[in-house]
Amino acid sequence: MDTPAPPAQRTSLPLVVLGVLLVALALRGPVVAVAPVVGQLSQDLGIGLRTTALLTSVPVLCFALAAPPASALIARLGPDLSLLVAAVGVLAGSLVRSSGGLFPAFAGTVLLGLAITVGNVVVPVVISRDCAGRVGLVTGAYTASLNFGSMTATAVTAPLALAAGWRGALLLPAVWVVLTVPVWVVASRGRLHRVPTATRHAAARSGASSVWKRPEAWLLLLAFAGQGFSYYAVTAWLPTLLADELGVSAATAGTAASVFQVFAIGGAFGVPALAAWWGRLAPVLLLVCGAWLVLPVGLLLAPQWWPAWSAVGGVAQGGGLVVVFIAVVQQSREEADARRLSAMVQGGGYAVAAVGPYVVGAVHEATGGWTAPLLVVAVALLVMAGTGAAAVRHRAPAPS
Q1: How far apart are CA 152 and CA 172, in angstroms?
Q2: What are the residues whose beta carbons fall under 8 Å from the beta carbon of 236, sequence distance 6 or more?
Q3: What was the pLDDT predicted at 49?
Q4: What DSSP character marks residue 189?
Q5: Are residues 335 and 193 in the same domain?
Q6: Residue 321 lies in a domain
Q7: According to the 3-state scheme, what is the secondary structure of 100-162?
């Protein structure tokens, strides 16, 4: 007969938080690191730039398609072992991607996407379980670490590739995993084991599909979709827009993209503090969406002031990710529910986010300008504002 899982055996909350922040550093860097070396990679592998771009888009598709299997894996292994699997998977995927030619590059990319998907889904579960009372602060720090990992990879990969080649440069973000594994093994002492069968069956009986019947879950999915669609569309097209509209150099356009990413750290830390001070999440979410809208509207009316619009939009996109994650945790009534809700919101949201660059690019091609594409981004943000505000006004249902 199975026995219940033992109580948490944790050394300290700071060590748990450190493990979460370290794994966060490795969850975006391996994806964004491709862009700075896309020319070298394309030439070395003998493929076109469009094919090379798949090395960036495939992981985002994995975030969407692999979220339900990731949720099932977490249910089977438990959050602690699943986070460790995600970290080791990032390292393995990075090694495979840099090991040879075209096939290893794509095989490693798929493995990276799958591992990062597990990390995406499990981290909110860990925060919900272990950081009660500090959910906003830890979620903000987690999001800031995601952005810092992206920023570091973007800044360092190209110079490193000059000395070590693109294969060596793409291994750099995985270094964070080397630090993550020992910290998480210690932080999860006594819990790195399979969830007992009785626990798994109890979780299944609690209503595996019930999350799909909850209106607030669908509202959060749409809010996350609006955030992700806007983020990936702006990330992909902001440099091109500035080059077309203002005739700026590639270096200046790249600076705009950097500003958009760097200022996200301010939103990641500012939103939890604002939510704690305000005491309600709905007005904070609406404020974030209003700031987000400053970017497309500002670029429509006064594109020459792009540094200001990029900074405000950067703060907003960092805060937007945090506020949705906080809402997911607040709407979760138990560990299994947090896992299912996280998988549903991220799976559906990333499916929409993945098409953001393509939709905005297609609208730009069809119209020959940037007014319609910016309006598309604005509409996505209005969807985020409406659905997100409605979602966070719901109270999480009590456990049955």
Answers
A1: 10
A2: 356, 357, 360, 361
A3: 62
A4: T
A5: no
A6: yes
A7: CCHHHHHHHHHHHHHHHHHHHHHHHHHHHHHCCCCHHHHHHHHHHHHHHHHHHHHHHHHHHHH
At 228-278, the pLDDT tens digits run 999 988 887 888 888 888 887 766 766 677 788 788 888 888 888 888 888
Q: Is residue 3 part of a domain?
A: no
Q: H helices then E strands: how many in the chain?
A: 18, 0
> In terms of domains, do 294 and 364 share one?
yes
215: exposed, middle or buried (Cβ count in 10 Å: 0-12, 13-18, 19+): exposed
Judge if 275 and 242 occupy the same domain.
Answer: yes
Shared-domain flag, residues 32 and 127:
yes
Residue pair 226/381 in contact by the 8 Å Cβ criterion? yes
Q: How far is CA 276 from CA 177, 280, 316, 370, in A?
A: 32, 8, 17, 38
Last residue of one domain, picked from the residues 205, 240, 269: 205
| Residue pair 76/195 in contact by the 8 Å Cβ criterion | yes
8 has pLDDT over 60? no
Q: How many CB atoms lie within 10 A of CB 355?
A: 19
CATH number of the domain encompassing residue 305 = 1.20.1250.20
Same domain flag for 192 and 240: no
Find the angle CA(128)-CA(130)-CA(135) to the nearest 5 degrees. Answer: 50
pLDDT 10s digits, 162-200: 888 989 989 988 889 999 999 999 988 767 665 544 444
HSE-CB of 22 using CA atoms within 13 angstroms: 23
Residues near 32 by beta carbon (within 8 Å), at least 6 away in sequence:
56, 150, 153, 154
Nearest CA-CA partner of 67 in 356, 350, 391:
350
The mean pLDDT of 25-41, rounded to a whole number, is: 84
Tell me the residue range of the domain where 300 lies.
210-392
What is the distance between the alpha carbons of residues 100 and 219, in angstroms, rounded to a whole number?
43
What confidence score (pLDDT) does residue 196 get? 47
Mean pLDDT of the chain: 84
- How far apart (Å, rounded) are the C-alpha atoms in residues 354 and 61? 6
Residue 249 DSSP label: -
pTM: 0.79
